[in-house]
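Q: What would this chain look like folded?
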Amino acid sequence: MLIIGAKGFAKEVLEVCVQNDCTNNLVFFDDVNMDIPDKLFSEFSILKNKEEVLTHFKNNGKSFTIGVGNPKHRRMLHQKFIDLGGVFTSMISTTAQIGSYNVNIEEGCNIMQKVVITNDVTIRKGTIVNQLTSIGHDVEIGEFSEICPNVSISGNCKLGANTFIGTGAIILPKINIGKNVVVGAGAVVSKDLPDNCVAVGIPAKVIKNK
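A: My prediction, written as structure tokens:
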């Protein structure tokens, strides 16, 4: 497995790999930060260029996941590593509680520690569902979205692609949130939100159109 990124969120994805007992041939990739060592925690190699990635894919399998936040960055990195022949792979913590019926988690998702997902839930490609978040029944989350820690998404909600939900936000039942939306930390979303906006507060109000 290759984890894209070697700081911040990548360290949390590492913990999921440890829980899942999949650290054999685990490496990281970072060609942005110049202050990183050759190995993370003195154990896991950090690749720093395309040639090293291609060699790893050839010798150790092509699975990769993204250890970087931000929907735009995740979408871009996904395409970059698909073009190199990688296979976009989900990482799901063993501590996550996932419903038994009609749960669809697409490729490349990161489902982190102590997440609760009930039944009839679809999480599209490349999405982060961060720790301690709960997702109610009949929810759909669009691709490359980022759900921060301790978010509560009630039943019958739909979130569009590339949406960012800040830490501790609450989405009330039967809410539709558009594409490319940012919901601020601690917000309570009680009404539908259109595409391409920023909403904050209790109740959440649109303060900016992107």
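Helices lie at 9-19, 50-60, 71-83.
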